[in-house]
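Hi all, long-time lurker, first post. I run a small reading group and we've been trying to get comfortable going from sequence to structure in the token notation. Rather than ask abstract questions, I figured I'd post a concrete chain and ask someone more experienced to write out its structure so we can walk through it together at our next meeting. Sequence below, copied exactly:
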Amino acid sequence: MKRWWLITALLLVLIIIGGVSSLLFNNYQQSRIDPGELLTEALDRTAAARSFRYNLESTLLVEGRKEEISRIQGEKSPEGHIHIKGEMVKTPVDIYHIDQAIYNWDSFSERWMVIKDAQTDTTKVLISELDPLSNFNFKSIGEIKRKGWETIDGRKCMIVNCKPSVENELMEILWRSFDYNIYIDVKDKLVRKATLSAVSKNNEDTYLNMTVSFKDFNEKISIVKPTVD
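-- Answer (accepted) --
Happy to help. Here is the structure in token form:
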């Protein structure tokens, strides 16, 4: 009996040592990851994703007063079709972008309004909501810092901070001093979440804050064009 307990205790010790060793090795491997190289690869791989789902929230902070701009859920299909639903400026929205046209549900007339891209600048105005990856088009990335780690949907993510020069016409006109925290899945090399802040070019007391999270990369997502009467 005494020998049995000795063997059991020894096995437990070996299991504990193995677990601790594995944890230490993983931490060592993660400490060697270069945040700049990881960020560059993650931006490229995320931009190349054919489909994904996302949540986006954006707010303004005007002289200490918080104002919500948008809170939407979106998805992109492998064909490039996009569907978003949620609220923008406290107004419900249900919008499709398919075949170079916007399909917008008008709750007053209870029908779909169709607007061709060539007829309006709506797509440009809604660029952050319809194309969240446009927020990650950088002319230059600038200073890069590793800020820590966070687990998102079971994925270990490195938090990388950067202050880039953005390549986004609307953002460039209105905002400056961009500051990003980008949460990168170190296994799949994909952006799982990002927060950004910027200062208004017209009013130093006005700030933009945005949070966007991604999931279901490269999965089969079907988005069907609405039936128009």
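A couple of things your group might point at:
DSSP finds five helices and 13 strands in the chain.
The mean pLDDT is 87.
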